[in-house]
Specification:
Bound molecules: iron/sulfur cluster
Strand order of the largest sheet: 1-2-3-4-5
CATH superfamily of the largest domain: tm_1862 like domain
Radius of gyration: 22 Å
Number of helices: 14
Low-confidence stretches: none
CATH topology of the largest domain: pyruvate-formate lyase- activating enzyme
Largest sheet: 5 strands, parallel
Shape: globular
CATH class of the largest domain: Alpha Beta
CATH architecture of the largest domain: Alpha-Beta Horseshoe
Helix content: 25-40%
Length: 430
Amino acid sequence: MEDFGCQMNKNDAELVVGRLRDDGFIRCESIDEADVILYYACSVREHAEERIFGRLGALKRLKAEKPDTVIGVMGCMAQNQKEIIFKRAPHVDLVVGTQRFEDVAEFVRELEHKDRVIAIDGGEVSYQRDITQRPVQHQAFVTIMRGCDKFCTFCIVPFTQGRERSRDPQSIEDEVRALIDDGVQQVTLLGQRVNTYGLDLNRGENLARLLDRLGKLKGLKRLQFITSHPTHIDEELMRVIRDNPVHSRYLHLPVQTGSDRILKRMNRGHNVESYRRTIDMIRRVVPDMSMATDWIVGSPGETDEDFAESVQLLRDIEFQTSFVFKYSVRSGTKAARSLPDDVPTEKKKERNQILLAEQEAMSKRLHQARIGEEHEILVEGISKRDATRWFGRTSQNWIVVFRAERDFTGEFVKVRIVDVTALTLFGELV
Ligand code: SF4
């Protein structure tokens, strides 16, 4: 099993692995040993889909040599691209959508007497998982809702994941408690539009109340959530975060563009002014909140003037981090049907580079202001670039690299910031 895409995808892939293990399947180290090869794939970005098709293409020979090997595609991409998958990779046996993945073991068995199994509609997934099956021991992700009701014109999620369905708060609390008992210190709550959590339950539940409830659980050291939409961030939520240090001071709030004209075309439901007001409120209530955002450059109809407004907004808000994406048409979306992809590729690349450079300069400036400060970090492991150093994250999600005599992975330590780059802070143990 290999997964591609967002954290929710990764979490669902973990659920699939747990289900298969419960059914007697064993995870193996290499593709050559495998009887069943599954990809859990995202459809939000063209890049992830192309990587999957690359992987599938490479398996053609293996399938010819070992025809009993099951090759399957699961998740958003399966939901959205089933015909294209079979057309481009006819050796695929199994396509399982976002609401049927729990039954994957049964579908694999059906293939003993069928050529192909396609399972897209008609189910609903539970949230049950084997909490011991997580890739990192001291951190865990917990899915608290699925689906999205927003229907941004460029986005495939509402079509692949369906309408918003919030999970019962008691079952979330039970899972978080079990994770804490199993050694987890940091929990990240997941939802496609996580800050509308609870609204569909129609009984007064919301994200603020859920955070308040979970923040009181003994033993939990850090709690955070992704990904939010700008229209449902209110003072109640910010006050809950302010009043308990367990809540991470990091908010990922995608704005997508600084142009009202393009926001309207995107059906985002907010404009630049309302976004600025939301940021002002956040910073008034939680002054040490670090802000990250997403941008799409080269959206249909985006002019140089529209793009200049994005650059201006990035400068004005002083985001800590920007994730910049070049627009690509996602089949099945409203934009694919009605908005021509009319910005040339070179222009998209150029705008991408400009925004990234702006963000790099901004991040470095913001980081420089941190020199001399002391911060508590949760240590995540050994630095990828330098095996003599370790790295961890502050509550604001800043990465801090430091030297240490022993392995502090999974522990909180205090560091003093002594140097910075645009991406990283360098610290000394205090
Ligand atoms: S809020 Fe918009 S971008 Fe986010 S998942 Fe929903 S439709 Fe997609």
